[in-house]
Amino acid sequence: MTITTSKSAEVVFNAIINVANWWSQEITGKSQNVDDEFFYHYRDVHSCHIRIVESIANKKVVWLVLDNFFRFTNDETEWKGTTVVFDIEQQQDKTILHFTHVGLVPEYECYNACKDGWTNFIGDSLRSLIETGQGKPNPIEGGFNEENVKKWNLQQS
Question: Could you tell me if residue 20 is inside a domain?
Answer without folding.
Answer: yes
